[in-house]
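sry for the spam today, last one i promise. C-alpha coordinates for design, 486 residues
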Protein backbone atom coordinates (compact mmCIF):
# COMPACT_ATOMS: atom_id res chain seq x y z
CA UNK A 1 0.00 0.00 0.00
CA UNK A 2 3.02 2.29 0.06
CA UNK A 3 2.72 2.84 3.80
CA UNK A 4 5.69 3.17 6.08
CA UNK A 5 6.08 0.80 9.06
CA UNK A 6 5.41 3.80 11.29
CA UNK A 7 1.94 4.27 9.81
CA UNK A 8 1.15 0.58 10.20
CA UNK A 9 2.23 0.81 13.85
CA UNK A 10 0.03 3.86 14.43
CA UNK A 11 -2.92 2.07 12.82
CA UNK A 12 -2.62 -1.09 14.91
CA UNK A 13 -1.82 0.48 18.28
CA UNK A 14 -4.17 3.38 17.58
CA UNK A 15 -7.07 0.96 17.13
CA UNK A 16 -6.07 -0.72 20.39
CA UNK A 17 -6.26 2.66 22.14
CA UNK A 18 -10.00 2.80 21.49
CA UNK A 19 -10.25 0.04 24.11
CA UNK A 20 -8.62 2.07 26.87
CA UNK A 21 -10.54 5.13 25.64
CA UNK A 22 -13.81 3.29 26.22
CA UNK A 23 -12.54 2.09 29.62
CA UNK A 24 -11.90 5.70 30.63
CA UNK A 25 -15.48 6.59 29.69
CA UNK A 26 -16.81 3.60 31.62
CA UNK A 27 -14.96 4.23 34.89
CA UNK A 28 -15.24 8.03 34.81
CA UNK A 29 -18.97 8.39 34.00
CA UNK A 30 -20.13 7.03 37.38
CA UNK A 31 -17.45 9.06 39.20
CA UNK A 32 -17.00 12.34 37.27
CA UNK A 33 -14.45 14.23 39.30
CA UNK A 34 -11.64 16.58 38.43
CA UNK A 35 -8.37 14.83 39.13
CA UNK A 36 -9.94 11.52 38.08
CA UNK A 37 -6.55 9.91 37.42
CA UNK A 38 -6.04 10.22 41.17
CA UNK A 39 -9.61 10.01 42.49
CA UNK A 40 -10.70 6.84 40.67
CA UNK A 41 -7.68 4.62 41.53
CA UNK A 42 -7.78 5.97 45.11
CA UNK A 43 -11.42 4.84 45.47
CA UNK A 44 -11.17 1.53 43.61
CA UNK A 45 -7.58 0.32 44.14
CA UNK A 46 -6.82 2.09 47.41
CA UNK A 47 -5.46 5.50 48.51
CA UNK A 48 -1.82 4.53 48.04
CA UNK A 49 -2.33 3.52 44.41
CA UNK A 50 -4.26 6.68 43.62
CA UNK A 51 -1.48 8.76 45.15
CA UNK A 52 1.44 6.99 43.48
CA UNK A 53 -0.31 7.02 40.08
CA UNK A 54 -0.90 10.77 40.20
CA UNK A 55 2.54 11.45 41.72
CA UNK A 56 4.18 9.64 38.80
CA UNK A 57 1.94 11.47 36.31
CA UNK A 58 3.00 14.79 37.85
CA UNK A 59 6.71 14.09 37.42
CA UNK A 60 6.30 12.55 33.99
CA UNK A 61 4.70 15.76 32.70
CA UNK A 62 6.72 18.54 34.30
CA UNK A 63 9.95 17.86 32.30
CA UNK A 64 7.84 17.70 29.11
CA UNK A 65 6.93 21.38 29.61
CA UNK A 66 10.59 22.30 29.20
CA UNK A 67 10.76 20.34 25.94
CA UNK A 68 7.58 22.00 24.64
CA UNK A 69 9.06 25.44 25.42
CA UNK A 70 12.19 24.59 23.42
CA UNK A 71 10.12 23.28 20.46
CA UNK A 72 8.06 26.50 20.58
CA UNK A 73 11.26 28.54 20.19
CA UNK A 74 12.35 26.29 17.35
CA UNK A 75 9.01 26.88 15.62
CA UNK A 76 9.44 30.65 16.04
CA UNK A 77 12.77 30.33 14.23
CA UNK A 78 11.02 28.31 11.54
CA UNK A 79 8.47 31.10 11.05
CA UNK A 80 11.25 33.65 10.45
CA UNK A 81 12.99 31.23 8.08
CA UNK A 82 9.74 30.81 6.13
CA UNK A 83 9.48 34.57 5.68
CA UNK A 84 13.13 34.72 4.58
CA UNK A 85 12.68 31.90 2.05
CA UNK A 86 9.62 33.69 0.65
CA UNK A 87 11.63 36.90 0.27
CA UNK A 88 9.50 38.86 2.73
CA UNK A 89 12.45 39.56 5.01
CA UNK A 90 16.20 39.02 5.08
CA UNK A 91 16.29 38.36 8.81
CA UNK A 92 18.08 35.27 10.07
CA UNK A 93 17.72 34.28 13.69
CA UNK A 94 19.91 31.24 14.45
CA UNK A 95 20.73 32.94 17.78
CA UNK A 96 17.19 32.11 18.99
CA UNK A 97 18.41 28.63 19.87
CA UNK A 98 21.64 29.85 21.50
CA UNK A 99 21.82 29.23 25.23
CA UNK A 100 21.40 32.78 26.66
CA UNK A 101 18.52 33.75 24.37
CA UNK A 102 16.80 30.37 24.61
CA UNK A 103 17.04 30.52 28.41
CA UNK A 104 15.09 33.74 28.91
CA UNK A 105 12.74 33.30 25.95
CA UNK A 106 11.76 29.77 27.04
CA UNK A 107 11.16 31.01 30.58
CA UNK A 108 8.83 33.72 29.23
CA UNK A 109 6.97 31.09 27.18
CA UNK A 110 6.45 28.94 30.29
CA UNK A 111 5.32 31.90 32.40
CA UNK A 112 2.82 32.81 29.66
CA UNK A 113 1.39 29.30 29.94
CA UNK A 114 1.13 29.70 33.70
CA UNK A 115 -0.69 33.03 33.31
CA UNK A 116 -3.24 31.45 30.97
CA UNK A 117 -3.95 28.77 33.59
CA UNK A 118 -4.57 31.55 36.14
CA UNK A 119 -7.55 32.77 34.14
CA UNK A 120 -11.09 31.96 35.32
CA UNK A 121 -12.08 28.54 33.90
CA UNK A 122 -14.70 29.78 31.44
CA UNK A 123 -12.30 32.29 29.87
CA UNK A 124 -9.50 29.72 29.90
CA UNK A 125 -11.57 27.13 28.03
CA UNK A 126 -12.70 29.72 25.47
CA UNK A 127 -9.11 30.69 24.73
CA UNK A 128 -7.97 27.07 24.52
CA UNK A 129 -10.89 26.25 22.19
CA UNK A 130 -10.15 29.24 19.91
CA UNK A 131 -6.46 28.33 19.68
CA UNK A 132 -7.37 24.70 19.03
CA UNK A 133 -9.62 25.75 16.14
CA UNK A 134 -6.75 27.83 14.73
CA UNK A 135 -4.51 24.75 14.81
CA UNK A 136 -7.11 22.69 12.94
CA UNK A 137 -7.48 25.43 10.31
CA UNK A 138 -3.70 25.39 9.82
CA UNK A 139 -3.80 21.64 9.18
CA UNK A 140 -6.43 22.17 6.50
CA UNK A 141 -4.26 24.89 4.92
CA UNK A 142 -1.24 22.57 4.88
CA UNK A 143 -3.35 19.74 3.44
CA UNK A 144 -4.44 22.09 0.64
CA UNK A 145 -0.87 23.26 0.07
CA UNK A 146 0.49 19.72 -0.02
CA UNK A 147 -2.14 18.83 -2.63
CA UNK A 148 -1.35 21.71 -5.00
CA UNK A 149 2.46 21.72 -4.93
CA UNK A 150 4.62 19.30 -6.89
CA UNK A 151 7.86 17.44 -6.30
CA UNK A 152 9.43 19.11 -9.35
CA UNK A 153 8.66 22.60 -7.99
CA UNK A 154 10.06 21.57 -4.62
CA UNK A 155 13.25 20.26 -6.23
CA UNK A 156 13.81 23.40 -8.29
CA UNK A 157 13.14 25.80 -5.42
CA UNK A 158 15.11 23.73 -2.95
CA UNK A 159 18.23 24.11 -5.08
CA UNK A 160 17.62 27.79 -5.85
CA UNK A 161 16.64 28.91 -2.35
CA UNK A 162 18.68 26.61 -0.13
CA UNK A 163 21.58 25.49 -2.31
CA UNK A 164 20.83 21.78 -2.05
CA UNK A 165 18.63 19.54 -4.17
CA UNK A 166 16.49 16.71 -2.73
CA UNK A 167 18.84 14.13 -4.26
CA UNK A 168 21.87 15.85 -2.72
CA UNK A 169 20.11 15.99 0.64
CA UNK A 170 19.39 12.25 0.48
CA UNK A 171 23.05 11.60 -0.48
CA UNK A 172 24.19 13.62 2.56
CA UNK A 173 21.84 11.66 4.81
CA UNK A 174 23.17 8.35 3.41
CA UNK A 175 26.73 9.55 4.04
CA UNK A 176 25.77 10.34 7.65
CA UNK A 177 24.27 6.88 8.20
CA UNK A 178 20.73 6.91 6.76
CA UNK A 179 19.90 3.67 4.92
CA UNK A 180 17.03 4.08 2.42
CA UNK A 181 16.86 0.30 1.97
CA UNK A 182 17.10 -0.38 5.68
CA UNK A 183 14.92 -3.00 7.30
CA UNK A 184 13.66 -3.15 10.85
CA UNK A 185 15.33 -5.57 13.20
CA UNK A 186 14.11 -6.29 16.72
CA UNK A 187 15.82 -3.25 18.23
CA UNK A 188 14.76 -0.67 15.63
CA UNK A 189 11.20 -2.04 15.49
CA UNK A 190 10.98 -1.78 19.28
CA UNK A 191 12.32 1.78 19.14
CA UNK A 192 9.68 2.79 16.60
CA UNK A 193 7.01 1.06 18.68
CA UNK A 194 8.25 2.94 21.75
CA UNK A 195 7.72 6.25 19.98
CA UNK A 196 4.22 5.17 18.91
CA UNK A 197 3.43 4.06 22.47
CA UNK A 198 3.98 7.54 23.87
CA UNK A 199 2.92 9.70 20.91
CA UNK A 200 -0.66 8.34 20.97
CA UNK A 201 -1.69 10.08 24.15
CA UNK A 202 -3.56 13.04 25.53
CA UNK A 203 -6.94 12.11 24.09
CA UNK A 204 -8.03 10.70 27.45
CA UNK A 205 -7.18 13.73 29.61
CA UNK A 206 -10.69 15.16 29.49
CA UNK A 207 -11.51 12.36 31.94
CA UNK A 208 -9.41 14.14 34.56
CA UNK A 209 -11.48 17.33 34.28
CA UNK A 210 -14.76 15.40 34.04
CA UNK A 211 -16.14 17.28 37.03
CA UNK A 212 -16.11 20.42 34.89
CA UNK A 213 -17.95 18.90 31.93
CA UNK A 214 -21.41 20.28 31.28
CA UNK A 215 -24.53 18.28 30.45
CA UNK A 216 -24.43 14.53 29.87
CA UNK A 217 -21.04 13.36 31.16
CA UNK A 218 -21.09 10.10 29.19
CA UNK A 219 -21.86 11.94 25.95
CA UNK A 220 -19.24 14.63 26.58
CA UNK A 221 -16.55 12.07 27.44
CA UNK A 222 -17.40 9.92 24.43
CA UNK A 223 -17.19 12.85 22.02
CA UNK A 224 -14.02 14.20 23.62
CA UNK A 225 -12.04 10.98 24.12
CA UNK A 226 -13.05 8.97 21.06
CA UNK A 227 -13.30 12.11 18.90
CA UNK A 228 -9.76 13.22 19.82
CA UNK A 229 -8.39 9.75 19.17
CA UNK A 230 -10.18 9.57 15.80
CA UNK A 231 -8.82 13.00 14.82
CA UNK A 232 -5.30 11.85 15.70
CA UNK A 233 -5.71 8.67 13.66
CA UNK A 234 -6.97 10.56 10.60
CA UNK A 235 -4.13 13.08 10.86
CA UNK A 236 -1.44 10.44 11.36
CA UNK A 237 -2.61 7.92 8.80
CA UNK A 238 -4.01 10.01 5.95
CA UNK A 239 -2.23 13.34 6.29
CA UNK A 240 1.26 12.05 7.05
CA UNK A 241 0.96 9.44 4.30
CA UNK A 242 -0.12 12.19 1.90
CA UNK A 243 2.85 14.41 2.84
CA UNK A 244 5.29 11.53 2.39
CA UNK A 245 3.74 10.63 -0.96
CA UNK A 246 3.81 14.21 -2.26
CA UNK A 247 7.29 15.20 -1.13
CA UNK A 248 8.98 11.82 -1.32
CA UNK A 249 9.57 9.30 1.43
CA UNK A 250 13.38 9.22 1.32
CA UNK A 251 13.56 13.01 1.05
CA UNK A 252 11.28 13.60 4.07
CA UNK A 253 12.74 10.83 6.22
CA UNK A 254 16.32 11.60 5.15
CA UNK A 255 15.90 15.24 6.15
CA UNK A 256 14.40 14.16 9.49
CA UNK A 257 17.33 11.81 9.97
CA UNK A 258 19.77 14.68 9.47
CA UNK A 259 17.92 16.88 11.95
CA UNK A 260 18.06 14.26 14.70
CA UNK A 261 21.43 12.64 13.91
CA UNK A 262 23.57 15.29 12.16
CA UNK A 263 21.83 18.61 12.75
CA UNK A 264 24.52 20.77 11.16
CA UNK A 265 23.84 19.03 7.82
CA UNK A 266 20.05 19.55 8.01
CA UNK A 267 18.82 22.53 5.92
CA UNK A 268 18.33 25.53 8.24
CA UNK A 269 19.07 23.08 11.07
CA UNK A 270 15.31 22.40 11.14
CA UNK A 271 13.21 19.27 10.60
CA UNK A 272 11.05 19.09 7.43
CA UNK A 273 8.00 20.66 9.06
CA UNK A 274 5.00 20.83 6.72
CA UNK A 275 4.79 24.64 6.55
CA UNK A 276 8.49 24.78 5.67
CA UNK A 277 8.09 22.24 2.83
CA UNK A 278 5.11 24.05 1.31
CA UNK A 279 6.94 27.38 1.52
CA UNK A 280 9.90 25.97 -0.40
CA UNK A 281 7.58 24.44 -3.00
CA UNK A 282 5.38 27.53 -3.43
CA UNK A 283 6.98 30.63 -1.85
CA UNK A 284 4.48 32.99 -3.53
CA UNK A 285 1.74 31.57 -1.28
CA UNK A 286 3.67 32.56 1.84
CA UNK A 287 0.66 34.23 3.61
CA UNK A 288 -1.02 30.81 3.80
CA UNK A 289 2.11 29.09 5.10
CA UNK A 290 2.58 31.91 7.60
CA UNK A 291 -0.82 31.11 9.12
CA UNK A 292 0.23 27.47 9.41
CA UNK A 293 3.58 28.39 10.94
CA UNK A 294 1.92 30.63 13.56
CA UNK A 295 -0.52 27.82 14.35
CA UNK A 296 2.41 25.42 14.76
CA UNK A 297 3.91 27.75 17.37
CA UNK A 298 0.59 28.03 19.21
CA UNK A 299 -0.23 24.34 18.88
CA UNK A 300 2.98 23.23 20.57
CA UNK A 301 2.79 25.94 23.23
CA UNK A 302 -0.82 24.93 23.91
CA UNK A 303 0.44 21.68 25.44
CA UNK A 304 1.90 23.67 28.35
CA UNK A 305 -1.22 25.40 29.76
CA UNK A 306 -3.45 22.43 28.88
CA UNK A 307 -1.30 19.92 30.79
CA UNK A 308 -0.68 22.39 33.63
CA UNK A 309 -4.43 22.57 34.20
CA UNK A 310 -4.58 18.77 34.11
CA UNK A 311 -1.84 18.50 36.74
CA UNK A 312 -3.30 21.11 39.09
CA UNK A 313 -6.61 19.23 39.03
CA UNK A 314 -4.78 16.18 40.35
CA UNK A 315 -3.12 18.26 43.06
CA UNK A 316 -6.43 19.93 43.90
CA UNK A 317 -7.90 16.50 44.59
CA UNK A 318 -4.93 15.73 46.85
CA UNK A 319 -5.81 18.73 49.00
CA UNK A 320 -9.45 17.66 49.30
CA UNK A 321 -8.28 14.24 50.54
CA UNK A 322 -5.78 15.85 52.96
CA UNK A 323 -2.74 14.41 51.23
CA UNK A 324 -1.28 17.90 50.82
CA UNK A 325 -1.75 21.06 52.94
CA UNK A 326 -5.20 22.54 52.43
CA UNK A 327 -3.73 26.00 51.84
CA UNK A 328 -1.97 24.70 48.73
CA UNK A 329 -5.30 23.77 47.18
CA UNK A 330 -7.32 26.82 48.23
CA UNK A 331 -9.20 28.21 45.23
CA UNK A 332 -8.86 31.96 44.68
CA UNK A 333 -12.33 33.58 44.82
CA UNK A 334 -11.63 35.82 41.81
CA UNK A 335 -9.64 33.56 39.52
CA UNK A 336 -11.33 30.32 40.63
CA UNK A 337 -8.02 28.52 40.43
CA UNK A 338 -5.68 27.16 43.14
CA UNK A 339 -3.22 30.02 42.67
CA UNK A 340 -0.46 28.63 44.88
CA UNK A 341 -0.50 25.40 42.88
CA UNK A 342 -0.37 27.22 39.57
CA UNK A 343 2.56 29.40 40.68
CA UNK A 344 4.39 26.33 42.01
CA UNK A 345 3.87 24.58 38.66
CA UNK A 346 5.33 27.58 36.86
CA UNK A 347 8.40 27.64 39.10
CA UNK A 348 9.00 23.90 38.62
CA UNK A 349 8.54 24.27 34.85
CA UNK A 350 11.13 27.06 34.63
CA UNK A 351 13.61 25.07 36.74
CA UNK A 352 13.29 22.04 34.45
CA UNK A 353 13.62 24.26 31.39
CA UNK A 354 16.81 25.90 32.65
CA UNK A 355 18.18 22.43 33.32
CA UNK A 356 17.36 21.48 29.72
CA UNK A 357 19.21 24.55 28.40
CA UNK A 358 22.21 24.71 30.72
CA UNK A 359 22.56 21.13 32.03
CA UNK A 360 20.66 18.75 29.74
CA UNK A 361 22.24 15.70 31.39
CA UNK A 362 20.26 16.56 34.53
CA UNK A 363 16.86 17.08 32.87
CA UNK A 364 14.61 14.01 33.20
CA UNK A 365 13.20 14.56 29.69
CA UNK A 366 16.52 13.12 28.43
CA UNK A 367 16.37 10.04 30.68
CA UNK A 368 15.35 6.81 28.96
CA UNK A 369 13.89 5.18 32.06
CA UNK A 370 12.04 8.28 33.27
CA UNK A 371 8.98 8.40 31.04
CA UNK A 372 9.06 4.64 30.48
CA UNK A 373 8.35 3.99 34.15
CA UNK A 374 6.52 7.18 35.12
CA UNK A 375 3.81 6.74 32.48
CA UNK A 376 3.35 3.00 33.06
CA UNK A 377 0.53 3.16 35.69
CA UNK A 378 -1.50 5.40 33.35
CA UNK A 379 -1.68 2.52 30.86
CA UNK A 380 -2.42 -0.23 33.40
CA UNK A 381 -4.59 1.28 36.15
CA UNK A 382 -7.73 2.06 34.08
CA UNK A 383 -8.12 -1.65 33.29
CA UNK A 384 -7.46 -2.67 36.91
CA UNK A 385 -9.99 -0.08 38.12
CA UNK A 386 -12.54 -1.43 35.64
CA UNK A 387 -12.09 -4.95 37.01
CA UNK A 388 -12.40 -3.76 40.63
CA UNK A 389 -15.35 -1.39 40.16
CA UNK A 390 -18.16 -4.03 40.43
CA UNK A 391 -16.66 -5.40 43.67
CA UNK A 392 -15.48 -2.18 45.35
CA UNK A 393 -18.34 0.14 44.31
CA UNK A 394 -21.36 -1.96 43.22
CA UNK A 395 -23.56 1.08 43.94
CA UNK A 396 -22.00 2.82 40.93
CA UNK A 397 -22.38 -0.07 38.51
CA UNK A 398 -25.76 1.07 37.12
CA UNK A 399 -24.18 4.30 35.89
CA UNK A 400 -21.43 2.50 33.91
CA UNK A 401 -21.98 2.77 30.14
CA UNK A 402 -21.94 -0.54 28.25
CA UNK A 403 -21.32 -2.29 31.59
CA UNK A 404 -21.58 -5.82 30.17
CA UNK A 405 -18.36 -5.02 28.27
CA UNK A 406 -16.52 -3.60 31.29
CA UNK A 407 -14.60 -6.73 32.35
CA UNK A 408 -13.99 -8.15 28.83
CA UNK A 409 -12.54 -4.84 27.60
CA UNK A 410 -10.35 -4.52 30.71
CA UNK A 411 -8.92 -8.02 30.23
CA UNK A 412 -8.45 -7.45 26.49
CA UNK A 413 -6.56 -4.21 27.14
CA UNK A 414 -4.24 -5.88 29.66
CA UNK A 415 -3.56 -8.69 27.19
CA UNK A 416 -2.56 -6.06 24.61
CA UNK A 417 -0.74 -3.48 26.70
CA UNK A 418 1.43 -5.63 29.00
CA UNK A 419 3.48 -7.36 26.27
CA UNK A 420 3.41 -4.24 24.07
CA UNK A 421 4.66 -2.07 26.93
CA UNK A 422 7.52 -4.47 27.62
CA UNK A 423 8.42 -4.50 23.91
CA UNK A 424 7.90 -0.81 23.13
CA UNK A 425 8.50 0.86 26.48
CA UNK A 426 11.31 -1.21 27.93
CA UNK A 427 13.05 -2.81 24.93
CA UNK A 428 12.26 0.06 22.57
CA UNK A 429 12.81 3.08 24.80
CA UNK A 430 15.61 2.01 27.13
CA UNK A 431 19.13 1.35 25.80
CA UNK A 432 20.88 -1.88 26.81
CA UNK A 433 23.81 -1.68 29.19
CA UNK A 434 27.02 -1.10 27.26
CA UNK A 435 29.95 -3.48 27.84
CA UNK A 436 32.26 -2.31 30.61
CA UNK A 437 29.62 -0.05 32.16
CA UNK A 438 28.82 -0.72 35.79
CA UNK A 439 25.23 -1.16 36.91
CA UNK A 440 25.45 2.06 38.93
CA UNK A 441 26.79 4.06 35.97
CA UNK A 442 24.08 2.61 33.75
CA UNK A 443 21.35 3.41 36.29
CA UNK A 444 22.50 7.02 36.57
CA UNK A 445 23.05 7.66 32.86
CA UNK A 446 19.67 6.24 31.80
CA UNK A 447 17.70 7.88 34.60
CA UNK A 448 16.84 4.66 36.41
CA UNK A 449 18.29 6.03 39.64
CA UNK A 450 16.48 9.38 39.33
CA UNK A 451 13.20 7.59 38.56
CA UNK A 452 13.53 5.19 41.50
CA UNK A 453 14.43 8.03 43.89
CA UNK A 454 11.43 10.10 42.74
CA UNK A 455 9.05 7.18 43.25
CA UNK A 456 10.55 6.39 46.68
CA UNK A 457 10.13 10.05 47.71
CA UNK A 458 6.47 9.80 46.72
CA UNK A 459 6.04 6.67 48.85
CA UNK A 460 7.73 8.34 51.84
CA UNK A 461 5.50 11.42 51.54
CA UNK A 462 2.40 9.21 51.48
CA UNK A 463 3.48 7.28 54.59
CA UNK A 464 4.31 10.48 56.49
CA UNK A 465 0.97 12.11 55.60
CA UNK A 466 -0.97 8.96 56.47
CA UNK A 467 0.77 8.71 59.84
CA UNK A 468 0.18 12.43 60.52
CA UNK A 469 -3.53 12.17 59.73
CA UNK A 470 -3.96 9.06 61.89
CA UNK A 471 -2.27 10.82 64.82
CA UNK A 472 -4.76 13.67 64.43
CA UNK A 473 -7.58 11.17 64.80
CA UNK A 474 -8.63 11.32 61.14
CA UNK A 475 -10.00 8.04 59.81
CA UNK A 476 -7.76 7.94 56.77
CA UNK A 477 -9.45 4.92 55.21
CA UNK A 478 -12.94 6.38 55.69
CA UNK A 479 -12.00 9.40 53.56
CA UNK A 480 -11.46 7.11 50.60
CA UNK A 481 -14.80 5.37 50.94
CA UNK A 482 -16.45 8.64 49.92
CA UNK A 483 -16.36 10.33 46.53
CA UNK A 484 -14.91 13.82 47.06
CA UNK A 485 -17.07 16.87 46.34
CA UNK A 486 -16.50 18.71 43.07
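last one done:
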Amino acid sequence: MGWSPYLWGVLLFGLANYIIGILYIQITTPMPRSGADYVIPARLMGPFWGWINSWMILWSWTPVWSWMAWVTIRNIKQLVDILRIAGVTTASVPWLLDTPTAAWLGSVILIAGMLIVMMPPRRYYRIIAALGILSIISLLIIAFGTAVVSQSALAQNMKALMGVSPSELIATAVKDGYDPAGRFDMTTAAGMAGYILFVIGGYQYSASISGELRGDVKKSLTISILGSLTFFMIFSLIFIWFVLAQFGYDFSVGWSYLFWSARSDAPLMLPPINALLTTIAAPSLWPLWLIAAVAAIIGVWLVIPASMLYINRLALAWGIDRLTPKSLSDVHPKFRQPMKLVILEGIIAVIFYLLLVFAPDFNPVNYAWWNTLMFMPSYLFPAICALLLPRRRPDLLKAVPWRSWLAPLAVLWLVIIVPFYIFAGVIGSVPPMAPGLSVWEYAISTGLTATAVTIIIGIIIYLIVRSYNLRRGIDFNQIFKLIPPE
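The mean pLDDT is 87. ok im logging off now
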